[in-house]
Amino acid sequence: MNSLDLPKPPHETRVVVAMSGGVDSSVVAGLLKREGYDVVGVTLQLYDHGAATHRKGACCAGRDIHDARAVAETLGIPHYVLDYEDRFRESVIDRFAESYLSGETPIPCVECNRSVKFRDLLGLARELGAEALATGHYVASRARPEGGRALYRALDPARDQSYFLYATTPEQLAYLRFPLGERPKDETRALARELGLAVADKADSQDICFVPQGGYADVIAKLRPEATRPGEIVDLDGRRLGDHEGIIHYTVGQRRGLKLSAGEPLYVVRLEPETARVVVGPRAALATRRIRLTDLNWLGDGAPEDIAERPVAVRVRSTREPRPARLSWNVAESCAEVELLVPEDGVSPGQACVIYADDGPRAQVLGGGTIRRIGALQAGAAEAA
Questions:
Q1: Which of 6, 72, 112, 315 has its Cα between 20 and 30 A from that of 225?
Q2: Which of 59, 60, 109, 112 is catalytic?
Q3: What is the DSSP string of 95-142?
Q4: Do the beta carbons of residue 66 and residue 103 sit within 8 Å?
Q5: In the predicted structure, residue 7 carries a pLDDT above the cut 70
């Protein structure tokens, strides 16, 4: 087996590398080329790059496409740029806007990986005769003794991207490779310099790629003008405390920007899109112990329907560490349920709940799903949501 766990020598193994124009994917292409693989670089243009051509931290547009092309030229590998704007708009941007209109807080990076990069791009790689699709994500995959591959947290905990890749299917994992999963970020930049890549000191991509300067509400308002429907800000008992200019400006757990005069700090407890109401309350009202999930992607052993009070660790935000929990299957609702052993604050519908085998730094990813609005998410008065 070669370094990618494939049964051919590198020079007989074609690998497509998804090149975003950043340092990580560029180093992956450089490393595989240096090892003798038949490397083909592919860059997807995902959105109208006019607003992001020169924006620091953007990806998949403008300057990044130029950088990817330049890296490919330096390495001497073929490189293709594909226009996926229509697919990206339909699968990611439109769903992003709809989710906010529904009172959720979506994660477009998860949907992009699920419906564009690891579906459409993977299919393209097969058409090009490649035996693997390699990316610059910081996540690890290892061969299972019984066949297939399993997903694990990356070596570098500060760079671990497993939260955003939980929706990768077993079939996709068998074809995907993540060469940076066992490397720290500083080593990646050192390799970029060693390989003579101009992007060695380029800033990492940040925030949502298609949202200039983090102004997601402006993007949603352009796509869905009805998203700016005004409404009331009310307390847990329904008493009006103020007004707002659209629920898209709020997310569960938010404290700043409420512009309310109250005797105690208030937080957004839930959003009610039907009535355009923002419900606020004390921090205690944010405590969440039970979560129901939709669109479960299961990477563990057996069938999710057979899970019964399994001890796991879960992550309900990308910025939080996995916390101990119990996983079970709700037969009546046909969905997974998570019971947090210690309640979490600010659990928001639309976010991902990623499930790990344990809370260790190299834990296996067992899958995950989308936190759903239906069900008793918050404790106390919010259970009626």
A1: 112
A2: 112
A3: HHHHHHHTT----HHHHHIIIIITTHHHHHHHHTT-SEEE---S-EEE
A4: no
A5: yes
Predicted confidence at residue 207, as pLDDT, reads 66
Give the Cα separation of 334 and 91 in Å (integer).
Answer: 25
The H-or-E segment that residue 306 falls in is none
Q: Which residues contact 219 (CB under 8 A, 6 or more apart)?
A: 93, 97, 210, 211
**Cβ atoms of residues 307 and 279 within 8 Å:** no
Do 106 and 58 contact (CB within 8 A), yes or no? no
pLDDT of residue 374: 42
Residue 239 near residue 193 (C-beta atoms within 8 A): no
pLDDT greater than 70 at residue 118 = yes
What pLDDT score was predicted for residue 226? 86
* Residue of 350, 300, 349, 351 whose CA lies nearest to 329: 300
Instruction: Give the largest CA-CA distance in the chain.
Output: 70
- CA 253 to each of CA 113, 227, 250: distance values in angstroms, whole numbers, following the listed order: 26, 20, 9
DSSP secondary structure letter of residue 380 = G
Q: Catalytic residue among 59, 109, 209, 335, which?
A: 209
Q: Can you spell out the DSSP letters for 267-304? A: EEEEEETTTTEEEEE-GGGG-EEEEEEEEEEE-SSS-G
Q: Which residue has the tokens 């970020």?
A: 185
Average pLDDT over residues 186-199: 97
- At residue 59, the pLDDT reads 52
Is 109 a catalytic site residue? Answer: no
* Best CA proximity match to 220, nearest among 96, 356, 118: 96
Q: Are 66 and 232 in contact (CB under 8 A)?
A: no
DSSP state of 248: G
pLDDT surpassing 80 at residue 52? no
